[in-house]
Amino acid sequence: MPPASPAETGQGSSVADFLRRSAEQDRPGDVFELESSKMLEVKVNGRVWSKIGAMVAYRGRLEFKRSSTLRDLVGGLRSGGGMGALLGAAMRMGSGEMGPLVSIEGQGVCYLADQGKEISIIRLQGDALNVNGKDLLAFEDTVTHEITMQRSVAGMVAGGMFSVQVRGNGLVAILSHGKPLTLRVTPNEPIFTDPNATIAWSEHLRPDLRVSQDLRSMFGRGGGETLQMAFQGDGFVVVQPYEEASAMENLPSH
Question: Cα separation of 189 and 71, whole Å?
């Protein structure tokens, strides 16, 4: 058995050893590659889309352009959410949870990460996926996206729970705190989840946001009325082992 390295014994390591372990891994292939479970390398030759604020480094000739927030709001209104959805979207933006996307254009390589979250790469092949807005890290330009809003009163109270539907052919990178878990949804066995732990669900599922007082000690972050997402039909839902603060919790107090 080889002797443990200085780093493994907690005694530190030389600069050369550190550089060797942390160096960029040159693995030619797809546009998206994981440098680590928490760092995404994106090879840009044209345009890709990213969550705002996710870029940590880049090289080459790249331009970063923020997309229109107004266009996103109007898109949510057209999706059938009405004024409740518009209000919910505005509340999400005020809390910092609903930021516009950034287009990355040109030729070069950039590195994306978000708060040390785990990154999963999904390849769409003519299908679609719904992703919680704050959990969408990046996607190729060949993938189309549409922001949708929950239409229930509970959704508006929660700050306008919104999601992004990505569709087409190409790579999508999503985020999770810890390793995600995928649960099967069948017509005979619906799945109920905490909205703050729900990161993605299949194309044809349309979750209902419900207010429950019975499970306040099990779902959510404390007493009072508790929101649940109810998934019924045929598909899947992806959850993470972590509850992120909701939009309303992030709003400033007066």
Answer: 37
Q: Which residues neighbour 194 within 8 Å (Cβ) at sequence distance 6 or greater?
A: 219, 220, 227, 228, 229, 239, 243
> Residue 148's closest CA among 95, 198, 94, 98?
98
Q: Is residue 170 within 8 Å of 127, Cβ to Cβ? A: no
Strand, helix or coil at 250? helix
Other residues' Cβ atoms within 10 Å of the Cβ of residue 126: 7
Q: Which helix (H) or strand (E) holds 253?
A: none
Q: Starting from the edge strand earliest in sequence, which strands make up the sheet with 208-212, in order? A: 191-193, 226-231, 208-212
Do residues 118 and 177 touch, judged by C-beta distance below 8 A? yes
Q: What is the pLDDT along the chain (254 residues), one digit of tens a residue?
A: 555 555 555 566 655 776 677 665 655 557 999 999 999 999 999 999 999 999 999 999 999 998 754 444 444 444 444 444 455 455 444 444 445 689 999 999 999 999 999 999 999 999 999 999 889 999 999 999 987 765 554 444 444 467 889 999 999 999 999 999 999 999 999 999 998 899 999 999 988 887 766 655 555 554 444 778 899 999 999 999 988 765 444 434 43
